[in-house]
Design a protein that fits this description.
Blueprint: E1 2-7, E2 12-17, H1 26-33, E3 42-47, E4 50-56, E5 60-62, H2 63-70, H3 74-92, E6 109-111, E7 116-118, H4 129-142, H5 149-163, H6 169-178, E8 199-209, E9 215-225, E10 249-252, E11 255-261, E12 268-269, E13 280-285, E14 288-293, E15 300-302, E16 305-306, E17 313-314, E18 320-323, E19 326-332
Helix pairs in contact: 3-5, 3-6, 4-5, 5-6
Length: 333
Amino acid sequence: MNKRIYNDSRMSYLIIEPETDISSSLSMNMMKNNKIQGLLDMECRYTDNKMDLYYEIQGMQCLKEYINEQNINYNLARQLYLDIVQAVLNGEEFFLSENSYVMDLEYIFWDKKNKRTKFCCVPELQGDFQEDIKRLTEELIKYTVHNDKNAVEFIYGIYGLIIDNGFIISDIKTYIKEFKPVIPKNTIYDNKKPDNISVTAMESNTQCLNENNKETKHQKFILCFDKTSLPFNIKEKRHINIYPGDAGEKINEGHIEASVGRSKDCNLILPACFVSRHHAIFYIENENIYIEDLNSVNGTFVNGAKIPANVKILCNINDIISFAGIKCILYYK
């Protein structure tokens, strides 16, 4: 399969020449007429009756170049496989075969703005997804930071799952959801509060205990709304302290949950018709905060990218989190 990069005054493209005539295929029509989350936007162009596929890569970097510069830590490895899962699941909704995804580092691109991976799907490509993702994982292992225990354990666990015969994409999704990273004792946070966000909407308090079970520090994760995205009066909002006895529910030591949605039984109530009754849930686990979309109708987004439903996503300080258009930002205090 031939490829080349083309840049004009306004846009950059990855250009692929398909090996067969795919102009009338169902998958071609699906990709021409829809923007599919997680896939590079594609259009077809003809020169002398020959079709070329143009994939938009403006503002993106080839994944091979990106990981050559910084290698792969746990957060990046986890994000890459989450993106693979979501891209394949999104493609299924448009009748795209997983075998048409090009699982090659030179055809995968890192979206610098949204910090997500985007994939190249070639209609009617007769690949072998299981073999291709196995090779991709073997390549990624070479770039893994081997003093990052979580990264090593995570990616070798993925590899073990893949080399078992008969794995399906939902197996990877389950593995990611159930993987429990080891939390470093001295976690460093960026606690700078952005200037353009002013309204505190949610606080979470956790206590860290030393070996003698004495309280050593008190920490807060603060979720702040962008006022311009709110379809209701901000006076309806209050601070939410996620700890037992207030708004959060303590599941076990070091594990606290707080729900978000339109329902009155949620910890954080968003009275907007486009927010699901039970939209998402935050988890505080051993000093880290995660978010999980509860199969909401209009989705939960982190830094502009829709997250998969029913999968815990590790949040980072200054992440922009959106609940069906209501934007907020997470910071640490």
